[in-house]
Design goal:
This protein is mainly beta and 351 residues long. The chain is built from two helices and 18 strands. A hairpin with a 2-residue loop joins strand 16 and strand 17.
Protein backbone atom coordinates (compact mmCIF):
# COMPACT_ATOMS: atom_id res chain seq x y z
CA UNK A 1 0.00 0.00 0.00
CA UNK A 2 1.09 3.57 -0.62
CA UNK A 3 1.16 4.43 3.08
CA UNK A 4 3.52 1.55 3.81
CA UNK A 5 5.88 2.44 0.95
CA UNK A 6 5.81 6.15 1.78
CA UNK A 7 6.58 5.49 5.44
CA UNK A 8 9.51 3.30 4.47
CA UNK A 9 10.89 5.92 2.07
CA UNK A 10 10.58 8.73 4.59
CA UNK A 11 12.23 6.74 7.37
CA UNK A 12 15.11 5.76 5.11
CA UNK A 13 15.45 9.33 3.92
CA UNK A 14 15.42 11.01 7.29
CA UNK A 15 17.81 8.50 8.84
CA UNK A 16 20.36 8.22 6.08
CA UNK A 17 19.97 9.93 2.73
CA UNK A 18 21.46 13.34 3.35
CA UNK A 19 23.24 12.43 6.56
CA UNK A 20 20.93 14.29 8.91
CA UNK A 21 18.23 12.87 11.11
CA UNK A 22 16.03 15.95 10.92
CA UNK A 23 13.21 16.74 8.52
CA UNK A 24 15.17 19.04 6.20
CA UNK A 25 17.92 17.88 3.83
CA UNK A 26 21.24 19.68 4.18
CA UNK A 27 24.02 20.45 1.72
CA UNK A 28 27.50 19.29 2.65
CA UNK A 29 28.94 22.73 1.74
CA UNK A 30 26.90 24.82 4.17
CA UNK A 31 28.04 28.31 3.14
CA UNK A 32 27.94 27.71 -0.63
CA UNK A 33 24.17 28.27 -0.55
CA UNK A 34 24.05 30.78 2.34
CA UNK A 35 20.34 31.67 2.12
CA UNK A 36 19.54 28.10 3.19
CA UNK A 37 21.78 28.47 6.25
CA UNK A 38 20.44 31.87 7.35
CA UNK A 39 18.21 34.33 5.43
CA UNK A 40 20.23 37.21 6.91
CA UNK A 41 23.17 36.38 4.62
CA UNK A 42 21.28 38.30 1.93
CA UNK A 43 23.27 41.32 0.76
CA UNK A 44 26.27 40.42 2.91
CA UNK A 45 28.88 40.18 0.15
CA UNK A 46 31.18 42.58 -1.66
CA UNK A 47 29.23 42.56 -4.92
CA UNK A 48 25.88 44.04 -5.89
CA UNK A 49 24.14 40.79 -6.88
CA UNK A 50 24.96 37.20 -5.90
CA UNK A 51 23.44 34.16 -7.61
CA UNK A 52 24.20 30.57 -6.66
CA UNK A 53 23.02 27.19 -7.90
CA UNK A 54 23.85 23.98 -6.07
CA UNK A 55 23.14 20.31 -6.72
CA UNK A 56 23.71 17.21 -4.60
CA UNK A 57 23.23 13.59 -5.65
CA UNK A 58 23.66 10.45 -3.62
CA UNK A 59 25.39 7.48 -5.18
CA UNK A 60 25.68 3.73 -4.65
CA UNK A 61 22.07 3.23 -3.57
CA UNK A 62 20.11 -0.06 -3.68
CA UNK A 63 19.03 0.25 -7.34
CA UNK A 64 19.67 2.60 -10.24
CA UNK A 65 16.04 3.77 -10.14
CA UNK A 66 16.31 4.85 -6.51
CA UNK A 67 17.07 8.59 -6.68
CA UNK A 68 18.17 10.94 -3.90
CA UNK A 69 18.76 14.48 -5.11
CA UNK A 70 18.83 17.94 -3.59
CA UNK A 71 19.05 21.18 -5.60
CA UNK A 72 18.70 24.89 -4.86
CA UNK A 73 18.99 28.24 -6.61
CA UNK A 74 19.40 31.43 -4.61
CA UNK A 75 19.81 35.08 -5.56
CA UNK A 76 20.16 38.18 -3.40
CA UNK A 77 20.95 41.87 -3.76
CA UNK A 78 20.83 45.12 -1.81
CA UNK A 79 19.68 48.70 -2.36
CA UNK A 80 20.74 51.89 -0.65
CA UNK A 81 18.67 52.99 2.36
CA UNK A 82 20.02 56.40 3.24
CA UNK A 83 23.74 57.05 3.16
CA UNK A 84 25.04 53.99 5.04
CA UNK A 85 22.40 51.26 5.27
CA UNK A 86 20.78 48.91 2.72
CA UNK A 87 17.53 47.16 1.98
CA UNK A 88 18.06 43.54 0.93
CA UNK A 89 16.03 41.31 -1.37
CA UNK A 90 16.33 37.57 -1.96
CA UNK A 91 14.78 34.70 -3.84
CA UNK A 92 15.22 30.97 -3.30
CA UNK A 93 14.04 27.84 -5.11
CA UNK A 94 14.76 24.42 -3.61
CA UNK A 95 13.77 20.86 -4.42
CA UNK A 96 14.56 17.38 -3.21
CA UNK A 97 13.39 13.94 -4.23
CA UNK A 98 14.05 10.53 -2.75
CA UNK A 99 13.30 6.91 -3.30
CA UNK A 100 11.63 4.69 -5.86
CA UNK A 101 8.92 5.85 -6.43
CA UNK A 102 10.14 9.40 -5.86
CA UNK A 103 8.88 11.48 -2.96
CA UNK A 104 9.23 15.12 -4.10
CA UNK A 105 9.32 18.35 -2.09
CA UNK A 106 9.49 21.72 -3.86
CA UNK A 107 9.59 25.24 -2.45
CA UNK A 108 9.77 28.81 -3.76
CA UNK A 109 10.62 31.67 -1.37
CA UNK A 110 10.92 35.43 -1.59
CA UNK A 111 12.30 37.60 1.15
CA UNK A 112 13.53 40.97 2.27
CA UNK A 113 15.52 42.53 5.04
CA UNK A 114 17.65 45.37 6.29
CA UNK A 115 21.43 45.70 6.51
CA UNK A 116 22.37 48.17 9.24
CA UNK A 117 25.85 49.69 9.56
CA UNK A 118 26.74 49.56 13.25
CA UNK A 119 30.27 50.87 12.98
CA UNK A 120 32.29 52.30 10.11
CA UNK A 121 35.82 50.94 10.00
CA UNK A 122 38.72 53.34 10.44
CA UNK A 123 42.38 52.60 10.98
CA UNK A 124 41.78 48.84 11.20
CA UNK A 125 39.23 49.08 14.01
CA UNK A 126 36.62 47.16 12.03
CA UNK A 127 33.41 47.60 10.09
CA UNK A 128 30.33 46.08 11.70
CA UNK A 129 26.95 45.25 10.16
CA UNK A 130 23.76 43.81 11.58
CA UNK A 131 21.52 42.04 9.08
CA UNK A 132 17.85 41.17 9.63
CA UNK A 133 15.90 39.21 7.02
CA UNK A 134 12.87 37.01 6.45
CA UNK A 135 11.70 34.53 3.83
CA UNK A 136 8.10 33.77 2.87
CA UNK A 137 7.64 30.65 0.77
CA UNK A 138 5.15 28.29 -0.76
CA UNK A 139 5.94 24.59 -0.76
CA UNK A 140 4.40 21.36 -1.94
CA UNK A 141 5.06 17.65 -1.42
CA UNK A 142 3.85 14.91 -3.74
CA UNK A 143 4.61 11.54 -5.28
CA UNK A 144 6.26 11.65 -8.70
CA UNK A 145 4.77 10.24 -11.89
CA UNK A 146 6.78 7.01 -11.51
CA UNK A 147 4.73 6.06 -8.44
CA UNK A 148 3.83 2.39 -8.05
CA UNK A 149 2.15 0.48 -5.25
CA UNK A 150 2.82 -2.76 -3.44
CA UNK A 151 -0.10 -4.48 -5.21
CA UNK A 152 1.64 -3.80 -8.53
CA UNK A 153 4.70 -5.87 -7.68
CA UNK A 154 4.49 -9.04 -9.76
CA UNK A 155 5.97 -11.87 -7.69
CA UNK A 156 6.01 -14.18 -10.72
CA UNK A 157 8.16 -11.81 -12.75
CA UNK A 158 10.04 -10.37 -9.78
CA UNK A 159 9.46 -6.82 -10.96
CA UNK A 160 6.92 -3.97 -10.96
CA UNK A 161 3.97 -4.19 -13.36
CA UNK A 162 2.10 -0.88 -13.43
CA UNK A 163 -0.73 -2.42 -15.48
CA UNK A 164 -1.89 -4.33 -12.41
CA UNK A 165 -4.56 -2.74 -10.19
CA UNK A 166 -3.00 -0.56 -7.49
CA UNK A 167 -5.58 -1.32 -4.86
CA UNK A 168 -5.69 2.36 -3.90
CA UNK A 169 -8.91 4.41 -3.61
CA UNK A 170 -9.90 6.10 -6.86
CA UNK A 171 -10.01 9.87 -7.25
CA UNK A 172 -7.22 10.55 -4.74
CA UNK A 173 -4.24 12.73 -5.64
CA UNK A 174 -1.21 12.14 -3.46
CA UNK A 175 -0.08 15.74 -3.37
CA UNK A 176 -0.36 18.51 -0.82
CA UNK A 177 -1.76 21.92 -1.61
CA UNK A 178 0.58 24.92 -1.74
CA UNK A 179 1.57 25.47 1.89
CA UNK A 180 2.91 28.81 3.25
CA UNK A 181 6.20 28.71 5.15
CA UNK A 182 7.96 31.47 7.09
CA UNK A 183 11.68 31.78 7.95
CA UNK A 184 13.69 34.59 9.57
CA UNK A 185 17.26 35.28 10.64
CA UNK A 186 19.68 37.77 12.15
CA UNK A 187 23.43 37.99 11.48
CA UNK A 188 26.24 40.18 12.86
CA UNK A 189 29.57 40.71 11.12
CA UNK A 190 32.82 42.49 11.90
CA UNK A 191 35.60 43.06 9.33
CA UNK A 192 39.05 44.33 10.23
CA UNK A 193 40.41 44.18 6.69
CA UNK A 194 39.70 42.71 3.26
CA UNK A 195 40.87 39.27 4.39
CA UNK A 196 40.08 39.30 8.12
CA UNK A 197 36.68 39.20 9.76
CA UNK A 198 34.08 37.21 11.66
CA UNK A 199 30.31 36.66 11.55
CA UNK A 200 27.70 34.97 13.73
CA UNK A 201 23.96 34.53 13.42
CA UNK A 202 20.81 32.66 14.42
CA UNK A 203 17.78 31.79 12.31
CA UNK A 204 14.37 30.14 12.60
CA UNK A 205 12.87 28.02 9.83
CA UNK A 206 9.28 26.76 9.51
CA UNK A 207 8.14 29.25 12.15
CA UNK A 208 4.52 28.38 11.40
CA UNK A 209 5.24 24.60 11.33
CA UNK A 210 3.51 24.08 7.96
CA UNK A 211 1.40 21.03 7.26
CA UNK A 212 3.05 19.04 4.46
CA UNK A 213 1.27 15.70 4.38
CA UNK A 214 -0.08 14.57 1.01
CA UNK A 215 -1.88 11.44 2.24
CA UNK A 216 -5.58 12.23 2.78
CA UNK A 217 -6.50 13.17 6.37
CA UNK A 218 -2.84 13.00 7.48
CA UNK A 219 -1.51 15.73 9.78
CA UNK A 220 2.19 15.71 8.87
CA UNK A 221 4.03 18.92 9.71
CA UNK A 222 7.53 20.32 9.35
CA UNK A 223 8.88 20.93 12.83
CA UNK A 224 10.38 24.31 13.61
CA UNK A 225 14.14 24.41 13.02
CA UNK A 226 16.71 26.62 14.75
CA UNK A 227 20.20 27.15 13.33
CA UNK A 228 23.33 28.79 14.66
CA UNK A 229 26.25 29.69 12.41
CA UNK A 230 29.59 31.36 13.10
CA UNK A 231 32.73 31.73 11.04
CA UNK A 232 35.29 34.08 9.63
CA UNK A 233 38.62 34.46 7.91
CA UNK A 234 42.12 34.77 9.35
CA UNK A 235 45.56 35.05 7.75
CA UNK A 236 47.98 32.17 8.30
CA UNK A 237 50.62 33.47 5.90
CA UNK A 238 50.74 36.27 3.34
CA UNK A 239 49.09 34.05 0.72
CA UNK A 240 47.14 31.59 2.86
CA UNK A 241 43.97 32.14 4.89
CA UNK A 242 41.68 29.87 6.85
CA UNK A 243 37.89 30.22 6.76
CA UNK A 244 36.54 28.15 9.68
CA UNK A 245 32.77 27.60 10.00
CA UNK A 246 30.66 26.22 12.84
CA UNK A 247 27.05 25.27 12.05
CA UNK A 248 24.48 23.81 14.43
CA UNK A 249 20.85 22.94 13.82
CA UNK A 250 18.11 21.46 15.94
CA UNK A 251 14.76 20.38 14.52
CA UNK A 252 12.39 18.57 16.82
CA UNK A 253 14.36 15.81 18.58
CA UNK A 254 17.14 15.82 15.98
CA UNK A 255 20.42 17.74 15.98
CA UNK A 256 23.40 18.22 13.69
CA UNK A 257 26.81 19.88 14.06
CA UNK A 258 29.05 20.76 11.10
CA UNK A 259 32.63 22.06 11.24
CA UNK A 260 34.31 23.41 8.11
CA UNK A 261 38.03 24.20 7.77
CA UNK A 262 38.66 25.46 4.21
CA UNK A 263 42.03 27.01 3.37
CA UNK A 264 42.28 29.76 0.74
CA UNK A 265 45.41 30.20 -1.40
CA UNK A 266 45.81 33.54 -3.20
CA UNK A 267 49.38 34.38 -4.32
CA UNK A 268 49.86 37.94 -5.57
CA UNK A 269 50.57 36.72 -9.09
CA UNK A 270 47.06 35.20 -9.23
CA UNK A 271 45.37 38.63 -8.82
CA UNK A 272 41.64 38.04 -8.21
CA UNK A 273 41.92 34.27 -8.58
CA UNK A 274 42.20 31.86 -5.66
CA UNK A 275 41.91 28.21 -4.71
CA UNK A 276 40.14 26.85 -1.66
CA UNK A 277 40.49 23.34 -0.29
CA UNK A 278 39.44 21.77 2.95
CA UNK A 279 37.16 19.37 4.76
CA UNK A 280 33.81 19.48 6.53
CA UNK A 281 33.03 17.20 9.47
CA UNK A 282 29.38 16.49 10.27
CA UNK A 283 28.01 14.94 13.44
CA UNK A 284 24.42 13.73 13.76
CA UNK A 285 22.21 12.63 16.58
CA UNK A 286 20.73 9.19 15.95
CA UNK A 287 17.19 8.10 16.74
CA UNK A 288 18.23 6.73 20.12
CA UNK A 289 19.61 10.12 21.19
CA UNK A 290 23.29 9.21 20.78
CA UNK A 291 25.70 11.20 18.64
CA UNK A 292 27.71 9.67 15.83
CA UNK A 293 30.12 10.84 13.15
CA UNK A 294 27.81 11.24 10.18
CA UNK A 295 29.86 12.45 7.23
CA UNK A 296 33.21 13.80 6.08
CA UNK A 297 33.23 16.10 3.04
CA UNK A 298 36.22 16.95 0.87
CA UNK A 299 35.76 20.37 -0.73
CA UNK A 300 37.52 22.32 -3.49
CA UNK A 301 36.49 25.79 -4.70
CA UNK A 302 37.97 27.61 -7.69
CA UNK A 303 37.63 31.41 -7.51
CA UNK A 304 37.89 33.02 -10.94
CA UNK A 305 37.33 36.76 -10.43
CA UNK A 306 33.53 37.01 -10.08
CA UNK A 307 32.83 33.28 -10.44
CA UNK A 308 33.19 30.45 -7.95
CA UNK A 309 33.02 26.75 -8.81
CA UNK A 310 32.77 24.41 -5.85
CA UNK A 311 33.11 20.62 -5.93
CA UNK A 312 32.65 18.28 -2.99
CA UNK A 313 32.55 14.57 -2.31
CA UNK A 314 31.05 13.33 0.94
CA UNK A 315 31.68 9.95 2.55
CA UNK A 316 28.75 9.00 4.74
CA UNK A 317 28.84 7.02 7.96
CA UNK A 318 25.94 5.54 9.90
CA UNK A 319 24.97 4.56 13.43
CA UNK A 320 24.81 0.91 14.43
CA UNK A 321 21.70 -1.07 13.47
CA UNK A 322 20.70 1.07 10.48
CA UNK A 323 20.53 0.40 6.76
CA UNK A 324 23.72 -0.91 5.18
CA UNK A 325 23.18 1.11 2.00
CA UNK A 326 26.13 3.23 0.93
CA UNK A 327 25.44 6.94 1.32
CA UNK A 328 28.29 8.74 -0.40
CA UNK A 329 27.34 11.85 -2.36
CA UNK A 330 28.65 14.30 -4.93
CA UNK A 331 27.91 18.02 -4.79
CA UNK A 332 28.57 20.90 -7.18
CA UNK A 333 28.04 24.65 -6.71
CA UNK A 334 28.29 27.55 -9.15
CA UNK A 335 28.23 31.12 -7.77
CA UNK A 336 28.34 34.39 -9.71
CA UNK A 337 28.76 37.79 -8.08
CA UNK A 338 28.12 41.00 -9.99
CA UNK A 339 30.68 43.65 -8.93
CA UNK A 340 29.32 46.67 -7.10
CA UNK A 341 30.23 50.28 -7.83
CA UNK A 342 31.84 52.45 -5.19
CA UNK A 343 28.58 53.66 -3.62
CA UNK A 344 27.17 50.16 -3.31
CA UNK A 345 30.26 48.37 -1.98
CA UNK A 346 30.49 47.15 1.57
CA UNK A 347 33.26 45.60 3.67
CA UNK A 348 32.21 42.23 5.05
CA UNK A 349 33.73 38.82 5.88
CA UNK A 350 34.25 36.31 3.09
CA UNK A 351 32.14 33.13 3.39
Amino acid sequence: MIIERTTFALLLYFSSVFQVNGQDPVFSQITSQPLLANPAFAGLHTGEVRASIQFKKQSELPTSSYKNQLSAFGIDTRYKAGSKDFWTLQGLISSFKIGDPSFVHQKVSLGGGYLKLLKAGRYGKGTQYLSLAFQFGLEQTFLASNTWFSNQYDTNLGTVNTTLPSGEPTGITYASSLIPDLNAGVLWSNSWSKNTGIYAGVSLFHINEPKTGFIPNADTRLERKTTLIAGGEWSLTENTHILPVFYYLVQGPHQRISLGTPLRFNPRAWNDQALRAGIWLHGNQSDNGKWFFGEITFQTIFELKNIQLGLAYAIGQKPIQTSSFSRNSFEINFTWIKPADYKKKIICPRI
